[in-house]
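Next comes a concrete protein, fold included:
___
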Amino acid sequence: MLTLRAFSLTFLGLLTGFMAAAQTPGTAPTPITLLSWVVWFLAGLVLLMAVMTAGSVTSAAQRRYEAEQGQPTAAEVAMAAAAPIEVAAAQAVTTEAAPQVVTIEEAVYA
């Protein structure tokens, strides 16, 4: 009984001491401050990802819109401006010397 009472009083004394120390302001950052920094960091990360996604979707939609409008690309404009003999020679050179470039349309879900 005596040891139980001694341990109980010691525990209660330590508990009240820790509670009193916890109520005094300290110089270390409080958990609320640390939590707010974490929340603001995550909010900034989410905002950055949203901006990146919006930019990607916008550029893909713009490329798709231009392709649907039938606007000629810079290479097609240059080929149309060249003389017919140069066009035939350029096509022969590009098909033999350069590898074929395949473009893949990106799907835009908006």
